[in-house]
């Protein structure tokens, strides 16, 4: 199993999922209750009542103003986790307190700090496209019954697009084009870059951009271990000029693919996925197409990882793998995670 | 937003897949370089900096 990395920010939910209905999520084996106060602030508390451990996210537990009332015997807690009411007696036991988790709402995500200490000045890494008027976003979340390390492996090696996602985002050139891999150990970031000069345009991009014919296709991955994965995808007709020195790039189409990889338990992972584009911003047909197409692609990965985890579960301890050049980025990520978990 | 910008001032380990070959060139922030055919020993060496990082690159002229 891939070790959990504590003392980090993790995406617990999309901001839109957290409201006045209690929501339960399990992060790194910790059951967490999420809700929003009447004035809109997200709250994250332990999702187990201190009395008999009833889940506070489960009916008939409910919000009473900004407080959460346990649905079993009525213990009630404030947003700081302190118990404010117990049934039948005046004295509230001193130990009646839920763990309250630091929360940040940023870039359309609700991030929760999982750790022993406080985050201090450390903020979650950014994915600004998800909450920007210059982009249109489609997104979703799929649970996977696998070790989160399998999803990290999957996303760090996009050569699998050619095989697992052929006819959607994969073309022969993806698996054939060499990559450059860079590790910034101090920052905890792995970069993998694959620049295809002359590639077939897969349906995902042909139908959304309207490009007919071959493309230059750049895939620049930034994996901010452990939780945030960014894929900067640049697509332009072959022969278009490269980006300008000032960073502007009017001839190309840009898609920012964002994943939040949140370990739930050792065998369960939340796969938050989002696709932000800087073209056809108001075109509802393109939005629907990208949502459907990307959801299909995500489900191809989900199905494959569910199968893979089941197969790995039957392996004897110490089973062998074989790594080749395409695995350079994935191996770097594994090492980084192992070091961060120490 | 610019694509894939890497801050050049931090200590980076970089691996190039050598064009037209199956070989990987590992480049350490200290300047040491070595070619590999397998990414597993490659990361052992690269992340093992500074150990064994003063020898010239394998197959260097
Ligand atoms: S289990 Fe919550 S009040 Fe009894
Ligand atoms: Fe995939
Ligand atoms: Zn070195």
Computed Rg of chain A: 22 Å
Query: How much β-strand is present in the residues of chain A?
Result: 25-35%
* H and E string of chain A: EEEEEEEEEEEHHHEEHEEEEHH
Backbone structural class of chain A: alpha+beta
Biggest interface reads: A-B, 32 and 25 residues
Specify the CATH class of the largest domain in chain A: Alpha Beta
CATH topology term of the largest domain in chain A:
Naphthalene 1,2-dioxygenase Alpha Subunit, Chain A, domain 1
What does this structure look like?
The complex is a heterodimer of chains A (342) and B (61). Chain A has helices at residues 148-156, 161-164, 172-176, 203-209, 284-313, 328-341, and strands at residues 8-14, 23-27, 30-36, 42-46, 62-64, 67-69, 76-77, 83-85, 103-106, 109-114, 136-144, 180-184, 189-199, 215-224, 228-237, 253-265, 268-277. Chain A has six helices and 17 strands. Chain A is of the alpha+beta class and 342 residues long. In chain A, a hairpin with a 6-residue loop joins strand 6 (67-69) and strand 7. The model of chain A has no long low-confidence stretch (mean pLDDT 97). A three-stranded antiparallel beta sheet of chain B has the order 1-2-3, with helices on one face. In chain B, strand 2 and strand 3 form a beta hairpin. The interface between A and B is medium-sized, with 32 and 25 residues. Bound molecules: FE2/S2 (inorganic) cluster, fe (ii) ion and zinc ion. Residues 28, 30, 32, 49-50, 53 of chain B line the site of zinc ion (ZN). The site of zinc ion has 6 residues of chain B, from loops.
């Amino acid at each position: 199993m891939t070790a959990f990395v504590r003392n980090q920010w993790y995406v617990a939910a999309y901001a839109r999922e957290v409201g006045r209905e209690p929501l339960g999520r399990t992060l790194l084996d910790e059951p967490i209750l999420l809700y929003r106060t009447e004035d809109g602030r997200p709250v994250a508390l332990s999702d187990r009542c201190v009395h008999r451990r009833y889940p506070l996210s489960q009916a008939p537990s409910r919000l009473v103003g900004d407080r959460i009332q346990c649905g079993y015997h009525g213990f009630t807690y404030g947003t700081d986790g302190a118990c404010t009411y117990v049934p039948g007696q005046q004295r509230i036991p001193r130990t009646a307190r839920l763990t309250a988790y630091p929360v940040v709402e940023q870039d359309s995500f609700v991030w929760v700090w999982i750790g022993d200490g406080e985050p201090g000045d450390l903020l979650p890494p950014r994915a600004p496209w998800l909450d920007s008027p210059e982009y249109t976003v489609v997104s979703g979340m799929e649970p996977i019954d696998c070790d989160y390390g399998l999803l990290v492996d999957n996303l760090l090696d996009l050569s699998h697009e050619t095989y697992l996602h052929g006819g959607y985002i994969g073309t022969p050139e993806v698996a054939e084009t060499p990559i450059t891999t860079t590790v910034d150990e101090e920052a905890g970031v792995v970069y993998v870059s694959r620049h295809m000069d002359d590639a077939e345009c897969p349906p995902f991009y042909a139908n959304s951009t309207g490009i007919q014919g071959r493309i230059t296709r750049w895939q620049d991955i930034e994996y901010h271990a452990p939780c945030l994965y960014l894929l900067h995808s640049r697509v332009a007709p072959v022969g278009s000029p490269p980006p300008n020195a000032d960073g502007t790039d009017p001839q190309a189409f840009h898609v920012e693919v964002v994943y939040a990889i949140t370990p739930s338990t050792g065998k369960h992972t939340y796969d938050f996925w989002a696709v932000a584009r800087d073209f056809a911003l108001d075109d509802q047909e393109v939005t629907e197409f990208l949502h459907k197409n990307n959801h299909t692609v995500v489900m191809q990965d989900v199905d494959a990882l569910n199968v893979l985890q089941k197969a790995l579960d039957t392996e004897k301890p110490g089973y062998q793998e074989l790594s080749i050049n395409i695995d350079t980025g994935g191996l770097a990520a594994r090492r980084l995670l192992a070091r961060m978990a120490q | 937003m610019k694509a894939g910008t890497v801050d050049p001032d931090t200590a980076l380990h970089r691996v190039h897949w050598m064009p037209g070959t199956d070989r990987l060139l590992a480049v350490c922030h200290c300047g040491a370089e070595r070619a590999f055919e397998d990414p597993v020993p490659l990361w052992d060496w690269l992340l093992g900096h500074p150990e064994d990082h003063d020898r010239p690159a394998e197959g260097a002229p």
